[in-house]
């Protein structure tokens, strides 16, 4: 039985907060799209769909790169389109970025338009070294059209 079928009648449960907690507990069992695999000899922008997919495997292809996360507006639109209850302040997107470089090439993460890194995070924590990975969490902080924003912890 698919996990999503468990939640078909989620609105009939007596306490929707319990239903949400149950859904979050099973979220890792939900089907996800295939990993995003990138080997561009240049910078990349990680699209909203790549980030929602949960895993990005990146080969910087010859040099260190600074890759940019999606814009806040596109992330909010993608969450709204994903059918997960709609974008709201506090909604988080988790994604693992893997540096599959074959040499000493790093990936530096940059926030897209409307995004910012958590204020207590030093710049060095945005760097992903060769053959390592980093879990990033993007938290939506404004979902109002025209003012979308997020904060990233990496």
Written account of the structure:
- With 154 residues, the protein is of the alpha/beta class.
- It folds into 2 domains: 31 residues, no CATH class; 121 residues, Jelly Rolls, CATH 2.60.120.
- Helices cover 20% and strands 30% of the residues.
- The strands form 2 sheets. Strands 1-3-5-9-10-7 form a 6-stranded mixed sheet. The chain has a 4-stranded mixed sheet with strand order 2-4-6-8.
- A hairpin with a 6-residue loop joins strand 9 and strand 10.
- The radius of gyration is 17 Å and the shape is globular.
- The N terminus is likely disordered.
Gist of the model:
By secondary structure, the chain is α/β, with parallel strands linked by helices.
Radius of gyration, CA atoms, in whole angstroms = 17 Å
Q: CATH architecture of the largest domain, please?
A: Sandwich
Query: How much helical structure, as a percent, in the residues?
Result: 10-25%
Q: In whole angstroms, how far apart are the ends?
A: 35 Å
Count of alpha/pi helices: 4
- SS class: alpha/beta
Total beta-strand segments: 10
Proportion of residues in extended strands: 25-35%
Largest sheet: spatial strand order = 1-3-5-9-10-7
């Amino acid at each position: 039985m698919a996990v999503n079928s468990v939640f078909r009648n989620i609105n009939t449960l007596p306490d929707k907060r319990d239903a949400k907690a149950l859904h979050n507990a099973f979220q890792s069992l939900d089907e996800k799209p295939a990993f995003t695999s990138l080997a561009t000899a240049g910078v990349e922008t990680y699209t909203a769909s790549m980030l929602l997919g949960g895993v990005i495997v990146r080969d910087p292809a010859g040099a260190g790169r600074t890759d940019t996360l999606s814009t806040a507006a596109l992330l909010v639109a993608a969450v709204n389109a994903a059918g997960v209850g709609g974008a709201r302040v506090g909604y988080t997107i988790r994604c693992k970025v893997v540096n599959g470089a074959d040499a000493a090439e790093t990936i530096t993460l940059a926030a897209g338009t409307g995004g910012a890194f958590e204020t207590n995070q030093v710049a060095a924590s945005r760097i992903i070294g060769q053959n390592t990975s980093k879990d990033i969490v993007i938290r939506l902080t404004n979902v109002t059209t025209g003012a979308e924003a997020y904060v990233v912890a990496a």
